[in-house]
Specification:
473 residues, alpha/beta, 6 strands
Length: 473
């Protein structure tokens, strides 16, 4: 049990120093991580041999892969020698039972409100065909399919406290963002070439979470699966605890219905969006589906997460075995969660239910399964290490702000230019609409938006005027 609790994996690294052999070190590190994911025992001579092969590809005759280099490489990446535990596929229900018996001890000293779980899930935020929604995760490594998917990371506590979601896309600044900066979005957005969680993004998120808990004077316990993208980072206010390998379907609260609920709410928004726009023009639903962009997906994800009931989260924690004297299990938990999802279906218009069948060839409640098998990290990726080192290095280098901002939104158009006068005219129409239909909530939102637009206009006019203009003779 202790082998996986600390999740001492090759992904945990110290701050790097420039050594002059960074390309060789980078590829050797990537090769080591790949070997760990595939459960291949790695020795010192194996690392040295692989590093020498990369050096030869780079025509580096001075690199010797000496014992000193090996010692430095192991130290810089926090790699330690140890026995490899059994295969993940060997985990049985006995492991789950043992884990649940141990949970009270692991949670000792932490109140239910300070016990969290975080997990990632893949999401096809738009699609054009029925069949492609059932493609397995390993088929998402490239091509059109990978351009229409994102990774969503969700985190919540035993008592239902929800942490701001993290969304990972491919482009640094997608066209659909226009002049909206990443830090202005309602959730945390990051990017890399595959739209996957990796150790650097996870560590950044984790440190933000740690700082937030510190500001609240809290010490919390965070449960995670033992994916290689989850390094065991030592923090001031957050203690990491890793779930047993290959048991998350039974031990991870997020997998007990929280993620499912968010996805169903997302699909409901997606289909209602299509129906509304079908009424306004003659475009088909499949055409409108292609026009959904990443900005839509981000806001729909944010709204869907906000609408998840606290009771759903607490029941899912209980279903995963997280029961204490202060928060006992509600029985039967599975039935309660299914009933909530059924109630969600009852609120869905008949037209939306029909559209789900037409577009996705399944019932609305089954939409949660269409992207169930999407990979969220590079656990299953098979890398061809026989390729030249230069090609390998190019493929693994992360995306940056200098990469094309259009990489993941080939079919997305830049928002059309809208003047202040046009914006105010639209708001006037929205106010009339709210008044005619007696919708006070819409009217309040429109009035707030109008105030923001007017303030923005006044601010621009003030910037354009110079103080010297007021003192001219």
């Amino acid at each position: 049990m202790t082998d996986f609790e600390s999740n001492v994996s090759g992904d945990r690294k110290r701050l790097r120093r420039v050594t002059g052999n960074e390309e060789i070190n980078t590829l050797t590190w990537e090769w080591f991580q790949d070997a760990m994911r595939r459960r291949i025992p790695v020795s010192g001579p194996m690392l040295q041999e692989k590093a020498l092969r990369f050096a030869a590809d780079f025509n580096n005759d001075t690199f010797k892969a000496s014992s000193g280099w090996l010692e430095s490489f192991l130290s810089r990446n926090n790699i330690v020698l140890g026995s490899m535990s059994g295969d993940r596929g060997d985990v049985s229900t006995q492991t789950v039972d043992d884990w649940r018996k141990k949970l009270p001890t692991l949670c000792q000293g932490f109140e239910p409100k300070d016990i969290f779980n975080m997990d990632e899930t893949g999401l096809f935020y738009k699609d054009t065909t029925k069949k492609s929604y059932h493609v397995k995760g390993e088929d998402c490594a490239g091509g059109k399919r990978s351009k229409e998917r994102i990774t969503v990371s969700l985190c919540a506590s035993m008592t239902g406290e929800k942490v701001t979601p993290l969304v990972i896309g491919k482009a640094f600044q997608p066209r659909c963002f226009n002049k909206i900066k990443r830090d202005q979005l309602p959730l945390m957005y990051r990017n890399n070439r595959r739209a996957w969680m990796d150790s650097s993004i996870f560590t950044e998120w984790l440190k933000k979470f740690d700082n937030k808990m510190g500001r609240q004077n809290r010490k919390v316990l965070l449960f995670l699966d033992n994916a290689p993208c989850h390094p065991d980072v030592k923090l001031q206010n957050v203690t990491l605890q890793f779930l047993p390998p290959n048991t998350t379907s039974m031990t991870q609260p997020m997998d007990q219905g929280i993620i499912q609920t968010v996805k169903l709410k997302y699909r409901k928004r997606q289909l209602q969006h299509l129906l509304t726009h079908m009424e306004r023009n003659d475009k088909s639903a499949s055409t409108l589906l292609k026009e959904i962009n990443l900005l839509n997906a981000i806001y729909w994800t944010h709204q869907s997460w906000n609408q998840v009931e606290i009771s759903t989260i607490t029941k899912c924690f209980a279903q995963a075995g997280f029961t204490t004297a202060n928060l006992t299990s509600v029985s039967p938990v599975e039935e309660d969660i299914e009933n909530e999802n059924s109630e969600d279906d009852d609120d869905v218009p008949l037209a939306v239910l029909k559209l789900a069948k037409e577009l996705f060839d399944c019932e609305f409640s089954e939409l949660v399964r269409i992207d169930k098998d999407i990979a969220t990290s590079d656990n299953s990726e098979q890398i061809d290490w026989s390729k030249p080192a230069t090609e390998l290095l190019q493929n693994i280098q992360p995306a940056s702000s200098s990469d094309s901002s259009d990489e993941c939104d080939d079919n997305e158009e830049t928002p059309q230019l809208c003047t202040f006068a046009e914006a105010l005219d639209s708001l006037t129409k929205l106010k009339d609409f709210a008044l005619q239909n007696g919708k006070c909530d819409i009217l309040s939102s429109v009035m707030k938006t109008e105030e923001l637009v007017i303030s923005m206009r006044v601010g621009i006019q003030c910037k354009q005027a110079k103080i010297s203009d007021f003192f001219k003779n």
